[in-house]
Amino acid sequence: MSSFFQRLNAVNAPSIGLGCMNLSHGYGSIVPESAALRALDEAFDMGYRHFDTATLYGATANEKVVGRALDGKRHQLFLASKCGMAMDPESGKRVIDGRPETLRKQCEASLARLRTDHLDLYYLHRLDRQVPIEESVGALGRLVEEGKIGGVGLSEVSALTLRGAVTEYPIAAVQSEYSLWTRNPEIALIDACREVGAALVAFSPLGRGFLTGAIQDPSRLEEGDMRRNMPRFSAENYPHNLQLFEHFAALAQALSVTPGQLALAWLKAKGGDIIPIPGTRSADHMRENLAAETLHLDVTSLSQLNAMMMPDQVAGARYNEAQQADIDTEEF
Predict the structure, then answer these.
(1) Which key words tag this protein in UniProt (predicted)?
(2) Which of 27, 48, 57, 178 is catalytic?
(3) Does the model's pTM come out above 0.70?
């Protein structure tokens, strides 16, 4: 068993984690601190033990609120954060920097914000194309040896980059967008993860809300919501994608589960080495998502789901050109 799963098991973590990003980043207005603290407290109380944040989120605000909420509970949970991508305080722009000295500095700042002396997992948030992956990973490996992080992770990387990284230091987990309507990891990354013994941590497993049925009209999303700039949510593409959702929702109804729970059950059926980390601002949705852990799909339902929302059926790319330029994953 990998150290990643040993650490999860040590805190009795469910096989579904919590992505904390959208409390502070990416989806319009940020959640007031008091409400964010309350949501994270409730998440812990209902059983979540794997919490995922990053230096980037909310320009460090997310790490601060997660650190405050989980203070005093550190030994009871699995805590993951990310480095190598941050907001420049002067320009307000996102900067990718994978230089060893930057990663060390960001790690030490993350530890302070998260009120802990170590992270269970620390991801390189994005590949810096100006820095060999081996250099970035080597720097993170030294942080493992110093006890500051428990394992090295990568985010939004290709199978090729992963294979290069493990020549320098073992990779505990790779984080990638994976859901019924975003199957890019199936091109090569899942196989590569299994080859090198890394877990796949699936972010946006609910299709950025699409697979819950909550988004009927993307034009009504808040200003500043990243989905307003994503091709799949555009006025041209979304009506087509909603038609795909109708078949999916009908199957969920037939199985007496919510669409979101069905989406998570499909992911979990892909293997025990795939860990979804849905994010939500709502305690009710957190509870609904966690309940999907006990769902098991029969062969017929799984076969039906596998045939839904295939890459050639979904309208629009997952990222716009600017967003796509920052990532290293395989594309259909």
Answers:
(1) Oxidoreductase
(2) 57
(3) yes
